[in-house]
Give the backbone structure.
Amino acid sequence: MKILAIGKGTQDVFLKSDEFDPHKEGKHMYTHLPLGLKMEVEDVHFCTGGNATNVAVTFARQGLESAYLWGLGEDPASQSILQDLDNEGVNTTHVVQARDFQSGYSVIMIATNGERTILNHRGRAFGRTGRHNFNLDVIGDYDWIYPTSLGDGGLPLLREIVDMAEKHNVKVMLNPAGPELAEHDKLVALLDGVDVLCTNKEEMQMLVSGETCEELALHALNYVPVAIVSDGPNGVVATDGKTIVRAGMYEDVPVVDRTGAGDAFASGFLSQWAQGKSLRESIVFASANSTSVVTKIGAKAGILHKHSTLHEMPIHEKPLNQRSKE
């Protein structure tokens, strides 16, 4: 099984400090950083991230042929991303390196409750016009592709990617990010070429109508064969049109850092689903992978390896009436 991940890579710098103590004001939580003062930081971690590189590592650790495509620069951050992927056995031959490209860069302040404030530089691999020099013909060499976080101007590129996958009968899993979700009509128009759509509850409400995760997942079936809707600690609902699965929390673990939890869930699901596992089995592994990631700092350290031992979790499955795609 061969899976190609497409999207930005980042250098992540994690800062932990007791000074990042969250306070609630109204409906929102804040960490106050007083201007003009020097604040002590107890711990610093340098990691690599970016949704596409995170999911590529899950695929590699599950023994799949994992590859990564994006533009990276010649800066130290880009070199770190390549080195991490090479060490994980991810195929990086499709990476385009150019002097005027730049990887993303994030400074992540971890609050005392595990929540984060992220200062993010998107990086630069192409302009807002969507013009690029990626060789998308390589998509035809894979069984699945996982495009994500394509940045500004990314929706035209996403359209090209999905069209190329459709041309070569390659399956697509999509976990759209903010720039894609901001263009509702264009995003919905390309869902016809998507096989698995995975979002959180708020993101899915930007695409289809519904109040509950179950309503949203069922409505999404009008566009895609498999829909997954997550709702943080409240769990997840997934359906393939034949059954619907509702799962709770895999394990109540102390949260160290939530970075990469969504990527671990989505890629954990695809790593099993692509190998023919059931919807239920795929959701169990996805939940375990996501739970493991939040126990470590960084998006990759906690990603499960092949043959990791799993345990039971609260999960319910019921059959659906057969339905046809509109």
Observations:
- The CA atoms of residues 204 and 216 lie 7 Å apart.
